[in-house]
Known about the structure:
The protein is an alpha/beta fold. The protein has helices at about 50-55, 100-110, 120-130, 145-155, 175-195, 205-210, 225-230, 235-240, 250; strands at about 10-20, 25-35, 40-45, 65-70, 80-85, 165-170, 195-200, 215, 220-225. The protein is built from nine helices and nine strands. A six-stranded mixed β-sheet has the order 5-6-7-3-8-9, with helices on both faces. A three-stranded antiparallel β-sheet has the order 2-1-4, with helices on one face. The two termini are about 25 Å apart.
Amino acid sequence: MQIHNRCGLCSVALKDLQVVSGQDTLLEHVNLEFHCGELTALIGKNGAGKTTLLKAILGERPYQGEISYTDHHGAKIIRPTIGYVPQQMDFDRSTPVSVQDFLAAARTNAPVWWKIRNREKEEIIKMLDAMDCDYLAKRRLGALSGGELQRVLLAAATNPVPDLLILDEPVSGVDMAGLDLFYRRVTELRDQYHMAILLVSHDLSLIRRYADRVVLLDKTVIAQGDAAQVYRTEAFRSVFGYLEEEEAGTCR
């Protein structure tokens, strides 16, 4: 695949990141760096702070510490472009809004009932075609399967091409065929545009297959490296109750 180095980002650095809610410490002393051209997976038990970390990066949670973005020349990026695919999107599935209407509104911030120009329709078809789902353009948004909806959300999150793509349990409830297709598209985006991708997932076998780096979180970083390294640590055993070798038949 030809590489189009559209990404101006080189790295994202989190320094001594802390998030507190009332008397509860949700994250503490998180020091982490991840890079463009890599898919970094966040893993951990429920309540480990994974989604809290994503929300801090997205600016949806107040935090202490520093989150910085650096370009390939070592200069700080003040307003990086961030794409986001949530675990699920809450909306009224009976609403007569088409995929085309939804994407046009997302691109232009116009109301969903606004007339779409022909040029905009062509751009939307290209966006969907990149996800192998251009046939969904006129389908009602509420009629999509879980896998189809997530591909539409991925198309929206990557137009314009982001410096950082954040995926929060993006294929929860999606069947195996849709799940595999989604992750193949994500890795193609990583390779084509050299973007940084941060993923939260509980599927350890898929992470082993697709992630470049794995970060094990339990309110702070307790292990990091490639999947094989992290899955063999005592920190991994303490969280999941087994070492990777003990589950080699299902993790590979």
